[in-house]
Structure formats: C-alpha cells, structure tokens
Amino acid sequence: MTVHYLSETSSQMYADVVVGTPIVYGDGYLYFFTDTNGNGEADEDEASRNNAYASFTPAPLEAAYNYQVSQEDPGGYAHNPRYHIQLLFDSIEALNQELSDGGVDMSGMARDASGHFAFNADAFRHWDEDGEVSASCSKCHTAEGLPFFLEHDTTIAFDPSNSMSCATCHNTSNPEFALYPVTEVGFPSGAVVSYGEESGSNMCLNCHQGRESTISVNAAIASAGVGDDEVSEALTFRNPHYYSAGASWFGTEVQGAYEYDGIDYNSAYEHTRRFNECTDCHQPHELEVQFGECTECHEEVETAADLALIRAHPEDAERFDYDGDGDDSEPIRDEIATFEGLLLELILEYGNETVGTPIAYDPVAYPYFFLDTNENGIADPDEANFGNRYNQWTPSLLRAAYNYQYIAKDPGVYAHNADYGMQVLYVSIVTLGGEEAAEGLFRPEIDYYE
To answer: How does DSSP classify residue 63?
Structure first.
C-alpha cells in the first residue's frame, strides 16, 4: 500500500464522515469530484467540470493540494522522495485528527528516515549554520568522513551531509558493493579490538565507541592536580558522547565508561553464539532491532517495544534483585534505571552539600550539567544553556557525572552489556555516597567470558 493511496483514502474518509459529501479523485481537470454514487471511484459521468468537488473545508483542501503536488511530479521518487513522503504523511495525520475512529492506520508508517539516513536529525543538521563539519566530528557525521578516515587514518572537515550514503560504508567501485575492509578498530582509550577479521560489524565500531574513556578522564584530573573533593577551574565536564554501544559491549577491554582504580569490571558481553555482533541484532541502515529474532529465547517479545521487557538471565538461572526493590523478575532495563536514578540523586546532593554550589541536569541540553541558580533541583529553561554550565567540578563529581551520562546515552546498555552497566553505576554510587548509599543494591559478579 503506497503513501499516495493512503493519502487519497484518508481524504475520502474525511470528506465522507466529517464533511458529509463523498469525494473521489479522477484524471480529468479539476481532478477532485463529488462521488455521487458513493462507490469510491471517479466514474465517467462523475469526472467532469460540472461535477467538481465544491465542499472543501480547509483540512481536505490542504491535503488535496499536497496529493496533487505529488501526483504531478511522477519523478518525485528520484527528485526528492523524502519531501514527498513528508507532505503526504502530514496530510494524512492532519485528516486523521478529525476522524473519531482514528482514520487511516499509520502505526507502520514513518515520516522521516531513521538511523544512518535520518537526514533531519541533529546528528547531521547540527553544523548547518556553521557550513562545515569539523575534523573532530566529520568521521561519523558526514557521508564522506568515514571512507576518508579509513583510507588516510585521519580526519578533515567536510561540508554538512544530508545523511550517510551507501558509499559511506560500501566500496561502490567494487562489483559486489562490498563493505570497506575493517579488521580492527582503535578506541579513545587506545585499545584496539575486533569482532573478527572478516566481521562487517567492525565498521560499526568506528563511530559507536564514544569519544572519551577512563584514560582521558584521568588525564584531565591529573592535569588539574587537585584532591578528589577539591574544586578546580581546570576541570570541565567530559562528555562521553552518544550511543557508544560498541564500548559498552567490549566493557573493560576498552574502558569507555569511567572505571575506578583497583576494581574489576566485565569484559565483552557474550550474548549467544547467534547474537554476538551489531548486525546480528540491528538492521544496519535504519539501526532498528530485528526483534523477531529474539522470540526464540524471549517469549515475551512480540513487538519492538517489548524488548524493554527482557530479563537478562533465563528462567533457570540464579536470579538477583539488583536494585533491592524486592522484584527479581522485573526487566533488566528497570533494574539499571534504579541505579541511574540513585546516582543522579547523589550527584545533585554532592553539588549542594559537598561543593556548596547546586547542580542540575538536563538530558538534552549540552553540556547537560548546569548551575542550579534557583536551587530547585531542576535545570529550568533559563538555566539549561552553555553560559550557565556547571563550573565547580571536583574529581569525584566529574567521575560520577561522566558515568551517569555514559549510561544515559547508551539506551540499549541493558542489551549491550547490562552487568557492566550496573557495575559502573554501583561503584560510582558507593564512591560518591558511601557504602550506605548502595544499601540493598547488588553489584553483578564478574563474568570471565571465554
């Protein structure tokens, strides 16, 4: 079923139900006619100027205009297909709002491309005003950046891209359109890892690795030269970046999260033999999880939304109430969320009581941690701006805030490496708030995967 057809169907439903005068589309001018016999088709005696539809209200008129725009550009699929889809999607949605039964089912439709082709996402639009994507960002945020990096082992600035392209990952001069060969990948910590020399998932690791690590956080703290609870103007928030799924999966092998000295953490997460690489679970272009593959082991998964219901350990394994709420069967994502909430509370408390300068957090405004000028514990709109960024960092606060942000910005950590995520959060909680702050919590044991 095409979007064109859905748009026409939506218009017919609206005209029939809301306006009360059925409409039909035909080939002749003026294209939209009164459906006198109500059969949903423009019969020969109906498709005439004398029978032109004359009961337009604003909503169907706007939708009809967009429908005709798309019809009259038969090459729209090549000229600007995304624009046409957006016009038609918005038109259907607008008409549906007036229909009591919801109108056309749009649950399987998408207005915009997703994942690597999400052309209107901040991942590609962030640099539009600058007119250039800097060398530090171009590898992952332009179509040309990654192949340039793979060929030259360095990055340069590029013009902003609409999204990635096929040639970002595939060698278009190769008759088989093969992926560029990537046998191993370096991480910000200096670690070099691989899913195997022949694995296409190594390509994913080039970008889904974060931009900081235990090493860089330690270097910043060492440079400041202050004690754990001493404020230094030399310290600023180190942003781990976003969707560092590869770093989470490899765990302590790459130290993408901040790992406290002298404490062990899990290494790479061995899920099952069938699901041990990025593309075993994710559709490589849209990044959506192929949830149908999960049902063999996780019977509760019937839709993509059900992935959040997964419990990490099978029914016959020893179960743990990680977050101490008395429920050892809740989704593992919920267990992690409790750890996150506790750590954020401690961060706010530490800023207020230990540093003496209240701190507030906003999950979408960079650099995320701000001066809480009215001391209400919330980053209000007038506080969540770069000029009001938090500037009273101590090493202890920086480590904890870094780990909070690291887990928050890998929303799939419950699947990528849940135990590692909870280990990271647990140690942050204990270090910042003391043993009593972790009362009732259980830190996952170390698994030494073969």
So the answer is: H
Residue 239 CA to residue 393 CA, distance in Å, equals 14
pLDDT of residue 164 exceeding 80, the answer is: yes
Dihedral over Cα of 267, 272, 274, 275: its sign: negative
268 DSSP assignment = S
Find residue 371's DSSP bridge partners. 359
pLDDT tens, residue by residue, 23-64: 999 988 889 999 999 998 999 899 999 999 999 989 889 999
Tell me the pTM.
0.83
The three-state secondary structure class of 270 is coil
CA distance linking residue 297 with residue 25, whole number of Å: 49
CA dihedral 257, 259, 263, 266 (to 10 degrees): 20
Please name the helix (run of DSSP H) or strand (run of DSSP E) that holds residue 330, with its range, or none. none
For residues 18 and 99, the answer to whether their CB atoms sit within 8 Å is: yes
Helix (H, G, I), strand (E, B) or coil at 25: strand
CA-CA distance, 304 to 382, in Å (whole number)? 36
pLDDT at 290: 82
Q: How confident is the model at residue 3, as a pLDDT?
A: 57
Contact 84, 64 (CB under 8 A): no
The residue among 239, 268, 240 whose CA lies nearest residue 252 is 268
> Could you read off the pLDDT of 183-225 as tens digits, one per residue?
999 999 999 999 999 899 999 999 999 999 999 999 999 999 9
Greater confidence (426 vs 317) lies with: 426
The kind and range of the H/E element at 21 are none
Question: Which residues face 360 on adjacent strands?
Answer: 370
In contact, 375 and 352? CB cutoff 8 Å: yes
Contact predicate 185/193, CB 8 Å: yes
